[in-house]
Fold these 2 entries.
Entry 1:
Amino acid sequence: MAPLADKPIDASLLGDLRLATGPVGQAAKGRHTTTARELVRLSGGALLIDTPGLRELGLWADEDSLDRTFDDIDALAPGCRFPDCRHHQEPDCAVRGAVATGRLDPERLASYLKLRHELEVLEVRKDEKARRLHEKSLGRDLAVRRQEVRRNKPGSR
Ligand SMILES: [Zn+2]
C-alpha cells in the first residue's frame, strides 16, 4: 500500500477514487469540489457524509433534551443543596456525591458537563447572531432616516 500522503484523502478513506477532491490552499481552507450530497459507507462500517456547501454542523438541543438524555443525573439533582446546582464545584452536590460513592460513573458526569458546556456555547453564539442581526437592522433604519432628512432639507429641491 502506498503512503497516505501520496493519495488524495478520499482514496485513504475509501480505498478507491470515488469522490473528487481538490487541493487545500495555504490558508488551510478547502474549496468545494463536489456539488452533490453523498453518504458513503466505509469498509469499517463508518459513514462518511460529503456535504458540499454545508459550512457547519452543530448541536440541536436544549436544556430539556440534556435532562432527558441524562435522566439519571436529573433524578439526583433534587438532592443537591442548591436548586440551581451545576454539579461542578458547589458544596453538598448530590450528583458529585453519587460519583464519590460509586453510584454514578464519573465518565457519565463528565459527558454531562461537556454537553452542557457545548449547549451554553451554542446559546451564546445564537445570542451573538441575534444581536448582530438586530444591529444590522438598526443600521439600515438609520441609513433610511438620514436619506429622508437629506431629502426634506430646506433648499435641497
Ligand atoms: Zn449538584
Entry 2:
Amino acid sequence: MLSFWEKNSFLNYDIIIVGGGINGLSAACAIKEKYPKRSVLILERGSWPLGASTRNAGFACFGSFAEIRDDISQNGLDKALQLIEWRVKGLEIHKQRLGTQKMGYKTTGGGEILFNDEPFEKEELETMNYHLKPILNADVFKTDISKVNEYGFSSKNISQFITNSCEGQVDSGLLMYNLWQYTTSLGVIIMNGMEVLDFNDSGKNCEIITKHNLLSETPKFTCQTLIFSTNAFSSHFFPNLDVVPGRGQILATKPIEGLKFKGIFHFRQGYYYFRNYGNRIIFGGGRNENKEGETTTEIALNNEIQNSLDHYLQTLIIPETNYEIDCRWAGIMAFGKDKLPIIERVSPNVIAGVRMGGMGVALSGVTAERIAEIV
Ligand SMILES: Cc1cc2nc3c(=O)[nH]c(=O)nc-3n(C[C@H](O)[C@H](O)[C@H](O)COP(=O)(O)OP(=O)(O)OC[C@H]3O[C@@H](n4cnc5c(N)ncnc54)[C@H](O)[C@@H]3O)c2cc1C
C-alpha cells in the first residue's frame, strides 16, 4: 500500500524521464538548465543504469575511416556528415557540462587497422579529409604503416594503418558517476528500482504504471511530459519504431607491463575496437560474427564472440605477450536501418529519444539538447 504522504508528494511531476542512462541523465540536465523551475523525475529500473552507458568501451569518437566510408555508401554523404557533426558537438556539450577531468577525457588519438582483403584508395581518404575539415578543422586521417610495429601489433595480413589525431577516450564509469551527481545537483529526482510497465497519454497528461520490488501497491506517477530514454529496451512501448537491440561484448585485461600503445583503435569497419586504460587493454566487438544471435536484450556473454576477442587479442593486438583477463561483460545497444537517432514526439505528451547505436557517449549531448527543445 502507499501512504497518503507518498501519494501527495512523490508521484506528480512536470516531466518524467524513463531510463537513467547517459541519454536520460543528459536530457534531464538539458531541461533543468533551460527550465530550472520545472520538476523533473527519472525512473530507472536498475540500481544504476543497466543498458549500455556503464558497459561501453569509452571511445570519444566520431567514426573510423572505413566506418564512415560504409555510412556514406549506405546512408549518403549528407547523413553521414550530420552524424559526425552531432558526435563532435555532443562531446563538446559533455565537456562543457562536466569538465574533462570528471569524464576522464583524454585526446589520445588512435587509428584503424585495414587488412589485405579491404579496399583502400589514397584518393578516397583525401576526399574524406576534405569533407571532415569544416567539422574538425584538421586533416583527420593519415596513413602510417610504421605504427603497426611501433604499437606492437602483428603485421600479418595488414595492408594499411590510418591514424586519427582528433579522437579520444573517456572513463565511462567516472563520466556516468559524475553526470549522475551533476544531474541531482540541478534538483532532478532519480528513483531507482522503478520499472515502468506501461503508460497512458490522455492528451491532457500522462499516467505511468510502475513496479517496485518492495511495494505491494503499484505506484502510478503522473506528469505533463513523458520522455522515453530507454534506447534498446523501447520496442515494448513503441513496437512501430525501428529500434532493434544489439548486444556488445567486451573484455578487460589485467595491467600488462610494457604495453606499447595508447589511444583508441578500430578494425573491420568499427565492428572491433580496443583501447588502453593505463596499461590494461579494453577490447570489444565481434557482433558481426553472429548478428542474429546478438539481436537480444539479454545481458549475457556468448562464447563464440568471446573466443573471437581472445583470438584477435593473441594474434593481432599483443602477439607473443603474456596477459591475463580481468573481466568480461556485455551491454545492449540499439540500432535501426538509419544510423541517426530517433528523437520525436510519439503522442501529444510523449517524446522518444532512442536508438543511439554504438556512439551514444558522443551523441547524447546533442540528442538531449533536441529533446529539451521539443519539451
Ligand atoms: C559494449 C558496448 C560498447 C560501446 N562502446 C561505445 C563507445 O566506445 N563509444 C560510444 O560513444 N558509445 C559506445 N556504446 C554505445 C553507448 O554506450 C550507447 O549508445 C549509450 O550508452 C546509450 O545510452 P542510453 O542512455 O540511450 O541507453 P542505456 O544506457 O541503455 O540506458 C537506458 C536505461 O533505461 C533503463 N530502462 C529500460 N527499460 C526501462 C523501464 N521499463 N523502466 C525503467 N527503466 C528502464 C535501463 O535500465 C537503462 O539504464 C557502446 C555500447 C556497448 C553496449
